[in-house]
Specification:
Layout: H1 19-34, E1 55-61, E2 92-95, E3 98-103, H2 112-115, E4 119-124, E5 126-127, E6 147-148, E7 151-152, E8 155-162, E9 171-178, E10 190-197, E11 203-209, E12 221-226, E13 237-243, E14 248-252, E15 255-260, E16 268-276, E17 289-301, E18 310-314, E19 320-322, E20 331-333, E21 344-348, E22 354-358, E23 364-366, E24 375-377, E25 388-393, E26 396-401, E27 407-409, E28 418-420, E29 431-435
Antiparallel strand pairs: 1-17, 2-3, 3-17, 4-16, 5-6, 7-16, 8-13, 8-17, 9-10, 9-16, 10-11, 11-12, 13-14, 14-15, 18-29, 19-20, 21-22, 23-24, 25-26, 27-28
Length: 437
Amino acid sequence: MASRPGTGTGAPTRRHRPLIHSLLACATAAAAVLLPTQGARAADFPPNPTAKSGYTLDFDEEFDGPGLNSAKWLDSYLPHWTSTPANAKARYTIANGVLTERLDPDTPAWNAQYDSTVKISSIQSYEKDWWHRFNSSMPNDHHEPDFNGYSTKYGYFEIRAKNSAVGGGGHQAFWLVGTGDTTSTNANSEIDMIETFFAKPNNWRIAAYGWNDPDFLSSWYLSDQAVPSGSPTTEYHVYGMDWTPTQLNFYYDNQLYKTINDAPNSPMGMILGLYTDAGSGVHNDTWPKTWNVDYVRVFKNNAGYPEGYQRIKNRQTGQYLNIEGKTGNVQYGNVPATYWSSQWAKESTGDGYTRYRNRWTGEYLNTTAADAIVHYGSLPATDPTGQWTEETADGYKRLKNRSTGTYAHTENLTGNLQHGAAPSTWWTSQWSFEPAS
C-alpha cells in the first residue's frame, strides 16, 4: 500500500451530538451495567470458527497472548527504508484478544525524507532489504535482518476488525506485498485487501497493482464502495479474500463482495497498519486514532491450487528445461511441448519458497550434489536444496536456490543446467514460463 497523491478526500464536518441522543446514550450505558455481559454486541458480526469446510488453517493469529508474537510479526514498518527506524515502530496494545494499533498526536513521520509527512503504526509478517520500493528514487537506507514470520502464495485470508471512527484524513490497511523480487527494482505485486479511509466510514476500499510484476495488473485497480450492511466503525465485521492462481474474490461477512479477474503468482508477506497524513488526507484533531483487530487467519484449499504445468524457457538460448535424457542432470533443449519431461509444476512451501516438480517423474529441481549442475530427484519438501525463489529481472524470472544462494543459468552452453553467481544482466540466467500443451 503506497502513498499515492491525489487520492485524499476532505475531512467531514464534525457535528455535536443532540442532547436527547446524549441522554439516551447515558441511559443505555447505565442499563448495560445491570445486564449480563455478552461476548459481542448484537450488531457485531460474530467470529468465524477456526475450522473452514474444504480448507486447512495455515496461519492463525488470535492476539490472545500478553504481547505481539515475535515469531509471526515484526513491530515496525519497512524499517530498511528510513534513517530514523525508531519512527517506524508500531504503537499498539493487546488486551482481551484484540490488537489495537494507535496513532498519537506525537507520532512522528516514519520517513520524512522519502515519504513526506506520513505517520504510521504498523506490523508486518515479512522483512527484507529493498522490500516494497514505492518511491523509485529511494535508496535502501541500511540493512535490516531478514524476517519471515509468514509469507505464502494463494489462500483464503480473513480478518475480523472494527475500523477507526475518528474521521478526518487517514486510513487503516491490511495488505500483501510480493516477496519474489529482492533486487533494487523490486517488481513485487501489491494487494490492498483493506485500505479504507477514515473519511468514508461506511465504505470498504480495495486496491491492487502489479508494480511491474509481469504476472499481475499493469495499472491500479480500485474499488471504494459502501458495505452491504452494518457500521464498520462501531461494529466488528469479517473481511475475507480468496486468492487463487487466476482470481481474487473478496467477502464481507462471508458474502461475496468483489472479484478481480487476475492474481499474483508469487509468495507475498502481510502488513497490518494505521496511517495518517498520507494520500488518504491530513489528520484532524481527534486522538488517539485506533484500529481494533480481533484476528488474522489464512486457510489453504484442500484441493490445492493447480496452476497447470509450465515450460521454463531460457532467454539466451530459447530452449526449455527438461529431463528427457534421464541423466540425473536437468538439461535444456528443443524438446516438443507435448513431452512431459519438459513440463513442470510449481509448489509453494509454507515459508515462501517454490519447488519445481517434473510431470514425467515427479522429481524436483535441486542442488544436492557438490557440483555446479542442477539435478532432479526425490527429496523432502523441507530440503532447502530443492527450494527456490523467483526474482524479476527485465521482465523475466531468475531462479535462486535457497541452499546455495546461486542462480540457475546456461552460461557455458554445456546442455546441462548450471547454477552459480550469475549477474542479473546475464540473459543466460533469465527465464520465462509458458503454459504447457
